[in-house]
Amino acid sequence: MKMKYDDYKEYLSPVLAKATNLVVESAKGSYITDVDGNTYLDFVQGIAVNALGHCHPEVVKAICAQTEKLISASFNLVNYPTTLGLAKELSKVTPGDLDVIFFSNGGAEANDGALKLARNFTHRPGIISFRGSFHGRTIGAASITGSNSKYRKNQEPLLPSVYFTPYPTCYRCPYNTTEDKCSLDCLQELQRTFDYLIAPENVAAIIMEPVMGEGGYVVPPKRFVQELRKLCTKHGILLIFDEIQSGFGRTGKMFASEHFDVMPDIMTLGKAIAGGLPMSAIVSTNEIMETWKPGMHGTTFGGHPVCAAAGLAVLKVFEEENILENVNTQGDYLRARLLEMQKKYPVMGDVRGLGLMMAVEFVNLDKSPSAEALNKVKDYCLHHGLLTLSCGVYGNGFRFATPLNINREDLDKGLAIFEDALKNL
Questions:
Q1: What pLDDT is stored for residue 9 in this prediction?
Q2: What confidence category does residue 1 fall into, taking pLDDT thresholds of 50, 70 and 90?
């Protein structure tokens, strides 16, 4: 008997919002198929989780081989060859001296751990995050999330000593200036936080998405990120980059931080790291990590050998199939096509992003956010075989999270549906 969403939704908590009512049975590459045999081109890919598309053969092969040997014995009891191997291979591609890794299960857990690590190393209580940020939904991660108040509803009090400062969102600059005339007012606002709210010597870390994810795929000015690094260094504040969504090639470089020539003190990874299996990581220097003594943090499933086997396969495919080259080639093409459409459709207020981390912000004629237009486009795409997902503080951002190995044919097919949706607004 074919299961429908209504058949089992009474058993699932409504707190987990569903973007569709699809019940999916199988998937391959850029496509998923539901229980009724309907096939959809997937431009969500598990929210940027499936970097190589669904069920890449090398990833599936690695998972199956590992499950035949060992599924789990707890990484705090024994070591696994795949997990140790993944840590070694990751250290080869992570920036600078970020060579020491703690494996977790999901992005929120990694960000929670990063906060603990920063507080432990600095012996300071304060954390500064950005308005518009998204770092997860656990109590710790929600405390530093500022992309929507619903994530914090009925949860106060959250973590103490957390402060928010404006993210440099140039399209909606809170200081009514343009990027070419920017005097880094956002950074001055951060300085005012030091002046009025918390002294910098009491701040353990500033956590930032080098490219904002759920908050709207916003790319900050390079100068801002570099000045932020200098400010952190000056005051002994650790800079944490949340690369849960922007990492692993999504922006055209292995890590988004490389676009800004800035190295954080701590970096969190997730989503694409294990080809669709739940895995995340906290990455830092030996100097910082060695202060984290046994028992101060832990995990039952983190560093899972099957996830690690998948992660090794992902890195292998990245190298063998020149994934980053494809991200830049297809990303440039995607941007060019969207900019062409923007000239024809004023509802496309902004086109932004890096690589295959691209977004369109939908607006009304007065430039105010238009979630209504976004939802109409998204619904049209769904009914014409294209899975999409929104983003942005105002729910008016349309994000493109295709596989990083997507081909031109599938990209054109999705863009054709997207443009038809614009025509039908």
A1: 78
A2: low
Q: Is 395 exposed, middle or buried (0-12, 13-18, 19+ CB in 10 A)?
A: middle
360: β partners = 351, 398
Task: Give the pLDDT confidence of 213-265 residue by residue, as tens digits.
Answer: 999 999 999 999 999 999 999 999 999 999 999 999 999 999 999 999 999 99
CB 243 within 8 A of CB 210: yes
Label residues 300-331 b or e (16+ Cβ within 10 Å = b): eebbbbbbbbbbbbbbebbeeeebbebbbebb
Rounded to 10°, the helix 185-196/222-235 angle is: 20
Tokens for 412?
A: 């054109």
Strand partners of residue 330: none
Question: What are the beta bridge partners of residue 130?
Answer: 165
Report, in this order, helix, strand and coil percent for the chain, each rounded to 5. Answer: 40, 20, 40
- Range with lowest mean pLDDT among 8-22, 108-122, 279-293, 329-343: 8-22
Closest CA to 106 of 272, 296, 267: 272
> Are 114 and 207 contacting, i.e. CB atoms less than 8 angstroms apart?
yes
For the segment 177-195, what is each residue's pLDDT rounded down to a tens digit?
777 778 788 899 999 999 9
Rounded to a whole number of angstroms, the CA Rg of the chain reads 21
Measure the CA–CA gap between 222 and 187, rounded to whole angstroms: 13
Q: What is the C-alpha to C-alpha distance for residues 203 and 129, in angstroms, rounded to an integer?
A: 11
List strand residue ranges (DSSP E) for 189-253, in order. Answer: 203-208, 238-242
Residue type, 208: M
pLDDT tens for 93-135 read 999 999 999 999 999 999 999 999 999 999 999 999 999 999 9
Backbone angles phi, psi at 48, to 5 degrees: 65, 20
CA-angle at 117, arms to 203 and 225, nearest 5°:
55
Element (H, E) at 26: strand 24-28
ω into 14 cis (within 30 of 0): no
What is the rounded CA–CA span in Å between residue 108 and residue 424?
A: 38
Rounded CA separation 5/9 (Å): 6
Give the rounded distance of the alpha carbon of 86 from its chain centre.
20
Q: Rounded to 5 degrees, what are φ and ψ at 110? A: -65, -40
